[in-house]
Specification:
This protein is α+β, with helices and mostly antiparallel strands. About 40% of the residues lie in helices and about 20% in strands. The chain has 13 helices and 13 strands. Strands 2-4-3-7-6-5 form a six-stranded antiparallel beta sheet, with helices on both faces. Strands 1-12-13-8-9 form a five-stranded antiparallel beta sheet, with helices on both faces. The longest helix has 18 residues.
């Protein structure tokens, strides 16, 4: 191994939760969020230009879902300031992942109000009349997320179809190593990542969780979390400087590649246990994140402060977790999270007192 680093120390205050506020739509000119986005028909900029040509738009945000995370280097925005554009993409990606829409062919499109069950578009983009969300797939994999908005009118069905067609990108040729790492991570849950020329190229969802980023959503290969860009930058810096630590192994590979693995056994085992229970109980991504907060022993107020939501929202999520797990409260649930086996009589007798503490 070439080096090792402490993953928890890579994150600054507030980066683990990445709460996002709704940005207002401004008069910002076209904004490229990274020089790499300027080139080629597959770049987010090229997609945004084609979508804007298909129908008038006041705002267009395009995110490359082949990237390891949604952030400044994978998002192009027109009509929004830089940070507002990629944070908008994160919020919409989380909404799409939560809704899990069934694609029709290679493209899917719906207004944000349709996607979120009528909660309205102003929560994502203030001052807009309609927000259209487009998810493009090639080869059966989600590759492009488009958020288009305008202030004065709704998008017609014909415009939706034209914009969805305009968002198409050539099907990629995945490097063999990424396909292999994806298979290993999916099978074992090992928190792996891959850097190329010192930049994050791919990361398993388990690596982001090992970095402390609970509650994010995965869409395509991209991880949607407000803290991911800063976490990736700190990880890249740690790999360059070779600082001290014992929680991250770095292996040099041919072709300017670096293979990363978070190695703290407790974190890996904990994440695998939470994933196992979330799948067994059919928890939503938000409930999976709250399961982590429960395991940490956070109160409703503490968990709400981390996520920027109300304590009542947290209480509602916890009630759903208790119902799906068939336990009466936080106490017996924490016993399950710790791997402690209790018989049904013990769980039932402690339910009322545990519910009061929750």
């Amino acid at each position: 191994m070439a080096g090792s680093h402490g993953v928890e120390d890579m994150l600054g205050p507030g980066e683990r939760d990445g709460a996002v506020s709704a940005p207002p739509v401004g008069e910002t000119p076209n904004v490229a969020l990274g020089t790499a986005l300027e080139a080629g028909p597959s770049s987010p900029k090229a997609v945004a230009d084609r979508v804007a040509s298909a129908a008038p738009c006041d705002v267009v945000v395009v995110a490359d879902l082949d990237a390891p995370f949604i952030g400044p280097q994978s998002v192009y925005g027109r009509g929004l300031a830089e940070e507002a554009a990629w944070r908008t993409a994160i919020r919409v990606a989380a909404a799409v992942a939560q809704a899990a829409p069934r694609p029709r062919g290679e493209g899917w499109a719906a207004t944000l109000a349709e996607l979120t069950g009528g909660r309205g578009d102003a929560a994502i983009l203030g001052g807009t009349r309609s927000v259209l969300v487009i998810l493009r797939s090639e080869g059966g994999k989600p590759r492009t997320l488009v958020v288009a908005a305008r202030r004065e009118s709704e998008y017609t069905d014909a415009e939706r179809r034209a914009m969805t067609a305009a968002a198409a990108r050539p099907e990629p040729r995945d490097p063999v190593i990424i396909a292999a790492l994806e298979a290993v991570a999916a099978r074992t849950g090992v928190p792996l990542g891959l850097l190329h020329n010192g930049k994050m190229m791919w990361a398993a969802a388990s690596l982001w969780r090992a970095l402390g980023l609970e509650g994010g959503a995965r869409l395509g290969r991209a991880f949607a979390h407000g803290g991911a860009p800063a976490a990736a930058a700190r990880l890249e810096e740690a790999c360059r400087t070779g600082g001290p630590g014992a929680d991250l192994d770095v292996t040099l590979l041919p072709g300017e590649l670096q293979l990363l693995q978070a190695t703290r056994p407790a974190d890996v085992a904990r994440s695998a246990r939470l994933d196992e229970l979330a799948k067994k109980w059919r928890l939503s991504p938000a409930e999976r994140a709250e399961l982590h907060h429960l395991m940490l022993g956070l109160s409703c107020k503490e968990a709400a402060a981390r996520l920027g939501v109300s304590p009542e929202t947290i209480r509602g999520r916890r009630k759903q977790i208790y119902r799906k797990a068939r336990v009466g409260g936080a106490g017996p649930l924490r016993a399950l999270l710790d791997g402690v086996t209790e018989d049904e009589d013990t769980i039932s007798s402690s339910s009322s007192s545990a519910a009061a503490l929750a």
